[in-house]
Design goal:
With about 400 residues, this protein is an alpha+beta fold. Helices cover about 35% and strands about 20% of the residues. Strands 8-7-9-15-10 form a 5-stranded antiparallel sheet. Strands 1-2-6-3 form a 4-stranded antiparallel sheet, with helices on one face. Helix 1 crosses helix 5, helix 3 crosses helix 4 and helix 8 packs antiparallel against helix 9. The structure holds ligand EPS.
Length: about 400
């Protein structure tokens, strides 16, 4: 069977955003309410522009589902754009003055035109509807195995929360995050983030910020150390970096690793037999600076990924640019946009991270059906708990090790 993958199609002001997900096992129950709730959450957050008052996102399944379960065939999901007007040149005119920071300049030259419209329509973050839907489907799969995630806004400018999410507090954290208009589980910091966004709007400017995702309940051994392109940390970084406007990705301690010696970076290993039934198999770590990933593989600790979003590139006051036809200096075009889409980006990030975890999960526990995935997962954990396994190779090495000691 094919490896889990997805692609999206659609323009920001085209008729719809479509997602094609391939490699899903048959028999996965799709929680449509949950998927639509994630789409609605993606539409929200303080700092959004007028577009979200027009749209009302939800998915329609066009293929790959029967009676609420995946069939094993390709899954196609579609979300209608209510603000569909791509072929109306008056309402969606050509754009000749590229916005610094957007895909306008590079995309139009790449497609050999001075009209940035085609590039900006496809590069628009409207496309993240499709990625959120794919990730939400992946989360339906992961939660069957007790894997859950928490995505939130860590902060922007000088308003940054130091909250350290723990699995035991997940219910409370979700409550706090969902009560916040900027999806920040720290009320005081959330208020300061709102004030910064309001200020940016008053100055006809924009702001970005930091979004973070924690994934709990992940078994040891997803990803691989065998090949560079199988490393899960690299794939997570690629997935997060591909979200519109993201400019940096960190795993665990991230760039702070450069500021500490090894003894203050690496997480000591111990073993607690009372915890051997958990997906971490009893191995415990007092800290999680590695962000749940060592050698490109999950290590049983929560996965922690942080992304940096740059400020939205459409500024009400414009930016210095040139007219692509005349090559004369001009302020960049203003198109209706958001002042800050960081809360929405935290939802997108949570879902794209989940998709990569689900992809790694379905590689390790491959099967055409959910039934096969469940048996493969259980069999692996059983074998791992029995270590050391009595193979001639293992027995010889243990004996040699004990003789040396
Ligand atoms: C975007 C510009 C805005 C955003 C859009 C991304 O759209 P519009 O020009 O129609 O106001 O709202 O994001 C979405 C539509 C969305 O659903 O997230 C851009 O230029 O990237």
């Amino acid at each position: 069977m094919a490896c889990l993958n997805y692609h999206t199609a659609g323009e920001s002001h085209g008729p719809a955003v479509t997602t094609l997900v391939t490699g899903l096992p048959a028999g996965l129950v799709l929680d449509v309410e949950f998927i639509d709730a994630e789409l609605r959450r993606r539409q929200g957050g303080y700092g959004r522009g007028a577009r979200q008052k027009i749209e009302s996102d939800s998915v329609t399944f066009l293929a790959g589902v029967r009676l609420g379960r995946t069939t094993g065939g390709p899954l196609v999901m579609q979300t209608i754009n209510r603000d569909s007007r791509l072929d109306d040149v008056k309402r969606t005119p050509p754009v000749y003055r590229p916005r610094p920071g957007h895909a306008d300049l590079a995309g139009s030259i790449k497609w050999l035109t001075t009209d940035c419209r085609d590039a900006l329509e496809r590069a628009s973050a409207r496309e993240t509807v499709g990625r959120t839907a794919a990730g939400a489907v992946a989360r339906c799969l992961l939660r069957e195995f007790g894997i859950t995630s928490f995505g939130f806004v860590r902060g922007l400018l000088d308003a940054v929360t130091d909250v350290q999410p723990q699995q035991e507090q997940l219910a409370r954290l979700l409550e706090l995050r969902d009560a916040s208009v900027v999806y920040c589980p720290d009320e005081a910091v959330g208020e300061r983030i709102v004030a910064h966004i309001r200020d940016a709007k008053a100055r006809r400017d924009t702001v970005g910020g930091l979004a973070e995702v924690h994934v709990f309940g992940v078994p040891i051994g997803l990803g691989s150390c065998a090949q560079w392109d199988e490393k899960l940390d690299a794939r997570l970084a690629g997935a997060v970096m591909s979200i519109q406007a993201f400019k940096a990705v960190e795993i665990g301690l991230g760039r702070q690793c450069a500021e500490r010696p090894g003894s203050q970076v690496h997480d000591p290993i111990s073993y607690d037999p009372g915890k051997k039934d958990l997906p971490s198999l009893g191995f415990t770590r007092p800290s999680n600076n590695a962000g749940g990933l060592e050698g490109g593989m999950t290590n049983g600790m929560p996965i922690v990924v942080r992304g940096t979003m740059k400020p939205i590139s459409t500024l009400l006051k414009g930016m210095p640019s040139v007219d692509l036809n005349t090559k004369q200096p001009q302020q960049s075009t203003y198109e209706r946009s958001d002042v800050c889409a960081l809360p929405a980006a935290s939802v997108v990030m949570e879902n794209v991270v989940a998709f990569e975890v689900a992809r790694a999960f379905t590689e390790k526990f491959a099967g055409d059906t959910m039934r096969e995935l469940h048996s493969s997962y259980t069999a692996y954990l059983d074998l791992a708990r029995q270590l050391p396994l009595e193979t001639p190779h293992e027995a010889a090495s243990i004996e040699a090790d004990q003789t040396e000691a």
